[in-house]
């Protein structure tokens, strides 16, 4: 029964039109929604019910942040088939590809940061830059996860009531809030901002490229603040 369910899911997600080599948002409008877009990135939220499929579509270079566990079957344009299992909250870099996807398990939700200016394959760095450049985000609550010439990705975990070190955010960036909560900012030498409420799973873009100010962040909520920060290096 599963193949039939998946096929029905494909038509449910696409309105019965199975495009080949098209934009995911176009061929699966019921599953993929644009959260924000500018000249540098497009952020797409993908929600797929269990045992549904997307049609064949093109994907650009991107960082995928799964908000749930993923257990999917991928069919590529050349006919190769594979399965991928990913834990929730573990971001990954993905190169451009043409494929269709079937969700094999429970409902999934991903936030996808698509890069508009990444024209070359990513060259992964094995470690954070050393010595750290002046524009490197150095803070005890920001953990380096991975980078290439296009992006640098951090996991941010701030316990309730804790304050980060003063640090510089020198690149445009996308933040995906894994948890919600109340956060406040303070630029060095200035007063604290009012606390801002962030919704779990939400995404925001910060135009920080070229800025030289340093600031710190305070978690004013009752639970840990958890986010993924994607810095755009070029």
Architecture overview:
The chain has 234 residues and is mostly beta strands. It folds into two domains: 2-115, Jelly Rolls, CATH 2.60.120.10; 142-232, Jelly Rolls (Sandwich), CATH 2.60.120. The chain has helices at 2-14, 24-27, and strands spanning 22-23, 32-37, 41-48, 57-59, 62-66, 70-76, 81-86, 92-94, 97-103, 108-115, 142-147, 151-158, 167-168, 173-177, 181-187, 196-198, 203-206, 214-219, 225-232.
How many alpha or pi helices? 2
- Largest sheet report: 5 strands, mixed
Q: Trace the largest sheet across and list its strands.
A: 1-4-9-6-7
CATH topology of the largest domain: Jelly Rolls
Mean pLDDT: 90
List the helices and strands and how they pair.
Blueprint: H1 2-14, E1 22-23, H2 24-27, E2 32-37, E3 41-48, E4 57-59, E5 62-66, E6 70-76, E7 81-86, E8 92-94, E9 97-103, E10 108-115, E11 142-147, E12 151-158, E13 167-168, E14 173-177, E15 181-187, E16 196-198, E17 203-206, E18 214-219, E19 225-232
Parallel strand pairs: 1-4
Antiparallel strand pairs: 2-3, 3-10, 4-9, 5-8, 5-10, 6-7, 6-9, 11-12, 12-19, 13-18, 14-17, 14-19, 15-16, 15-18
